[in-house]
Amino acid sequence: MTIHNASPKINLMLHITDRQPSGFHHLQSLITFFGNGDQIEVQESDIFSLEIKGPFGKGLPIKDNLVLIAAEWIHELYPYQAKAHLTLTKNLPISSGIGGGSSDAATAISALIEMWELKLEESKKKELIKKSGLLGADVPVCLAHHLMNRSYFWIEGSGKEGLPEPLWKENPLADYSILLVNPKIAVSTPEIFRLYDRIYDKPIEPPKKSSELMDFLLKTKNSLAKPTSEIVPEIKKILDVLRASDDCLLARMSGSGATCFGIYKDTQACEEAISKMDPNWWVYKV
Predict the structure, then answer these.
(1) Phi/psi zone of residue 157: left (φ > 0), alpha (ψ -120 to 50 degrees), beta?
(2) What is the mean pLDDT of residues 102-116?
(3) I want to staple 29 with a disulfide (CB 3.0 to 4.6 A). Which of 14, 140, 191, 233 is the partner?
(4) Selecting from 3.40.50.1860, 3.30.230.10, 3.40.50.300, 3.90.1720.10, what CATH number does the domain 3-166 have?
(5) Phi, psi dihedral angles at 254 (to 5 degrees)
(6) Catalytic residue at 226?
(7) Is 138 in the active site?
């Protein structure tokens, strides 16, 4: 049985430029996938079933879990393939702005495609990515990470359109360390968007070269940080600690929160920062 990694999705920046007629906000976001996260295992079976374990697995629903929904969805497209028993090891906090559920669902789809030994053409991969928007706004970019073998994407729209733009093959943050910190407080994304003040950002262009990434990020922000901080004051505390730590090049909230991240120039600086974090927080070096 192969273990498949569902990496955390990190919104390195997130701007809101408008509101679509559908009611969804138009986002611009540069997203990366970094390090180990939740884990998905698949084993051939006569029925689809799901087992959940791990430090954040307690109390998660089985029947309406997005992993199971995603598995049944991809099977509808390939009905002659075997069904499977899936095991989710939940290592990432719930509703934390790093795409845990979406990344799990996308990883389950990718794992089943591998189990079925499907050799998909590029056009078919793109079709699946686009269709997966039915499962949730973050699922397409998470699925693109697996099927397109890229770790950096530019998002335009709500995400549900399923058209993430893959960026560079190289990893401009390969020599850096990233620290994820969460106050162990779940955040409702719809609630955050309801609190958003609708002061929209001007549209921008993504960096053309990977070498431009850090300069680009320093000129951007996460437009949801303000409304999220209003209901989770701990976010400001986390960001203050990250920014005050030595050699932190950038500190920001990911997605709709409450997970924040710090980018450090090296592993030593990142590990020194860990010692300054509140022991009640979830802290994870990726």
Answers:
(1) left
(2) 98
(3) 14
(4) 3.30.230.10
(5) -100, 135
(6) no
(7) yes
